[in-house]
Input
Amino acid sequence: MLASFSIPSTNMKDTHTFPPALLDWYAQHQRAFPWRQNPEPYAVWISEIMAQQTRLETVLPYYHRWMGTFPTVQALAAAEQQDVLNLWEGLGYYSRARNLHKAARLIVQAHNGQLPGDRAGLEKLPGIGRYTAGAIASIAFGQDEAVVDGNVKRVLSRLFLVTEPVNTTGGEKAIWALAEAHLPQGQAGAYNQALMDLGATICLPRQPDCAHCPVADYCQAYTQGKQEQLPVKNARPKSPHYTVTAAVIQQEDGRYLIAQRAEDALLGGMWEFPGGKREEGESLKTCLQREILEELQVTIKVGGKLGVFKHAYTHFKVTLHAYRSQLTGGEPTPLEHQALQWVTPQQLDDYPMGKIDRQIAQVLQQKD
Output
């Protein structure tokens, strides 16, 4: 069974007529964002990529800096990847920035500098899937395309009492079908943004503000007092935890060794202090010496601990132990990295890094 829907109460308005009420509310209460004031395709594209798995309020300062540095797709295409990653640092999910850069170059080379105006064309660009293509097509080009993100899933699952888990193939299919079935022709951009705004400001995951919801009279979950029970989600497996080490290798001249991660690796293109994951039964220092030998073909003397740093990625968590270290044999060779660089503490700001490595860099800049 694709999804379960209840029979509406006789006191409840016909759920199929909810879009006009939602659009009226949106016209008065929409959140003000720069890409809404000027829904130019490039601006909408950048905002949608930045907003993936990130709150729009968090996105705003990054968006302003980005548009100030890369105001057009041509400017982005002409940039160096390191400059792109530097500007993106802190937003996470760095493959998004790399894909933006690749797509910009493709748009300039193959599309005369113009984003495709339809879903099919947009989905052929790196980093653009069904949701993002629908958002750009509807908001920037006025196409009748639906979108489904976390907010839309929550709103529609409550409106239509969808009891199938929304994080399953069947649940996703049901929500997409509902989003498309109720799409008001010619108003898809406003409708999609209204659904997202409603989910972000009123139809919240916990304690939804049903008293101020413009479509409460249409909501089957609200009528039955089940809004807190939806959306249904299957429990995700517990994230694994890894203990890792990093070598803060310093030369006599005070410079530190950093390594650029492989393009196809996690945090691809970013710079790090080299190291790796501890194997079962291994001490932290033995782990670090083994990893540095495998990665750089050198031996090191492991000194005092610089710090312990923790971070949660999408699918796993890490605790990283950073040690001050010195070379004792060999010349560093990038066996598993794209490049190596010796840098001063002040120069560390010029190299894009993930959160943990940036924290290590900041410790070095404070102490050295």
The CA atoms of residues 260 and 271 lie 4 Å apart. The chain is about 40% helix and 15% strand. Residues 1-11 have pLDDT under 50 and may be disordered. The two ends are 63 Å apart (CA to CA).
